[in-house]
Specification:
The complex is a heterodimer. Chain A is an all-alpha fold. Chain A has 3 helices and no strands. Chain B contains 6 helices and no strands. The relative contact order of chain B is 0.07. The chains are: A mainly alpha, B mainly alpha. At the A-B interface, helix 1, helix 2 and helix 3 of A face helix 1, helix 2, helix 3, helix 4 and helix 5 of B.
Chain lengths: ~100, ~160
């Protein structure tokens, strides 16, 4: 049985949904950030799979994956800085207790 | 045949590691599972003949982002034992399962136009021409550099002591 595009896409969908479930249910803010990284990685897998199966000579999907990595790195730096600042104010990283701006 | 075996092994490992990130009670072990997940995704890139992207994945994710995450876990360690769930467990599971079903249905029902050519095998030089040539992606590269600079400055300003 040869590995086709669908295998990679289904794998990426499974990873995305695991990450989505974690990001929706977890209360620790660092774990939520880790689950978001998981979702970004699954999107990268599907981009690279599209690139190498549909347009194998153009590499556009890989360029997009590189930009997703750039944005993910920036996002994790700022996100962890925000978590540390919140920790310094509240001495807590529980996302369900940080409700200062909740309506 | 070897490629198929490698894909299946790495698919199982990556899904198990992702489940570990979500369901392990110890936050530090969840971070280690996340690192395993990153390394396996790099292996998946190699099976897709994206060698440069696999190296970047190891450098950026395994080298930098994991260190940042573990640092944050160490600094916020004593406030919360384990990684408890909130009350949205069942609705979140239903949302994730429905989304997964929809995505798998669409992926398997669509007839993809698979190209006949085999992908480029060393991708570093073609990626460089793609990224840095005049007709390529040079403007997004510069914008990404500005984004990184802004993110670094913002992170320093937010995280420093008053």
């Amino acid at each position: 049985m040869t590995i086709g595009l669908e295998h990679y896409l289904v794998l990426s969908a499974v990873l995305f949904c695991i990450g989505l479930y974690g990001a929706l249910t977890k209360r620790n803010a660092v774990i939520i950030l880790m689950c978001i990284e998981l979702m970004l990685n699954s999107v990268n897998i599907s981009l690279v799979a599209f690139s190498s199966y549909i347009v194998p000579l153009m590499l556009t999907g890989q360029v997009f994956a590189i930009f997703v990595m750039v944005v993910a790195a920036a996002e994790v730096a700022v996100g962890l800085a925000i978590i540390l600042a919140i920790y310094r104010c509240f001495t807590d990283v529980d996302a369900s207790k940080i409700d200062l701006m909740k309506w | 045949m070897g490629l198929a075996a490698a894909f299946w092994i790495m698919a199982v490992v990556v899904v198990v590691a992702a489940l570990g990130v979500v369901f392990l009670r110890n936050v530090f072990r969840a971070a280690l599972a996340l690192i395993l997940c990153f390394i396996t995704v790099a292996g998946l890139y190699i099976t897709l003949s994206a060698d440069f992207l696999a190296a970047v994945q190891i450098l950026v994710y395994v080298g930098a982002i994991s260190v940042l995450i573990i640092l944050a876990i160490m600094m916020t360690r004593e406030v919360q034992q384990g990684s408890p769930s909130n009350r949205m467990k069942l609705p979140a599971f239903i949302v994730a399962a429905v989304l997964l079903g929809i995505m798998i249905y669409t992926v398997t029902k669509t007839s993809w136009q698979i190209a006949a050519e085999s992908p480029l095998s060393p991708t570093t030089a073609p990626l460089a021409t793609k990224l840095f040539s005049e007709s390529g992606f040079i403007l997004p590269v510069e914008i990404a550099a500005m984004l990184i600079l802004a993110a670094i400055l913002g992170a320093i300003v937010i995280a420093r002591e008053k």
